[in-house]
Amino acid sequence: MFSCFSEFIADNEIFDIKKIKDIILLHLENLKNHFNTRFEKFPEKKLGWIRNPFSININEMNSELSLVMNEELIELSADENLRIKFNETTSDKFWISIKSEYPELSKVAVSTLLPFATTYLCETAFSALTVIKNKYRTKLNLESDLRVAVSNIKPNMETIISKAQAQVSH
After folding, report:
1. How far apart (Å, rounded) are the C-alpha atoms in residues 75 and 73?
2. What is the distance between the alpha carbons of residues 135 and 81, in angstroms, rounded to a whole number?
3. pTM over 0.85
4. Whole-angstrom Cα distance, residue 59 to residue 83?
5. How far is 7 from 42, CA to CA, in rounded Å?
6. Which end of the chain is more exposed for a tag (fewer CB within 10 A), N or C?
7. How far apart are CA 23 and CA 91, in angstroms?
8. What rounded mean pLDDT belongs to the chain?
9. Gap between the Cα atoms of 147 and 149, Å rounded
10. pLDDT per residue over 120-152, tens digit each?
11. CA separation (Å) from 119 to 59, 113, 124, 149?
12. How far is CA 60 from CA 2, 45, 63, in A?
């Protein structure tokens, strides 16, 4: 982004770079503060095992884990090979990589660490909407068209065609 910004400044002959720099720095600082206030309250007692499953004391945990998940967590925290793997990779990649060995823990951890993984559906819907709603189709009822556009269900065309009644001539 900043290489494009440099080109923009050069093309538009903007001389007050310090003012623009201050605006960008202020924006980034506000963004950082917003993220910190929004995500700082990680429930350590309840979900601390996700952050580091090897540094927790299971007896002191105040969690609502099922019996299966408690057993998986005890096994996981005792595995030295996984401890090394955890230290060498990021949390999300670690939890995804042990999905087959510890499915229950992995499922909860991944869903906690990746809460925004499904935003692509919103982006897909918006893109479909911009294609469907253009200057030639402004008066349409979009609900049905949009539902079909973003659905991942493939239509059975043979069944649809067989149920359709052919237009009879007058």
Report:
1. 5
2. 60
3. no
4. 20
5. 41
6. C
7. 34
8. 79
9. 5
10. 777 778 888 888 877 667 667 777 777 877 777
11. 37, 14, 9, 16
12. 48, 8, 9
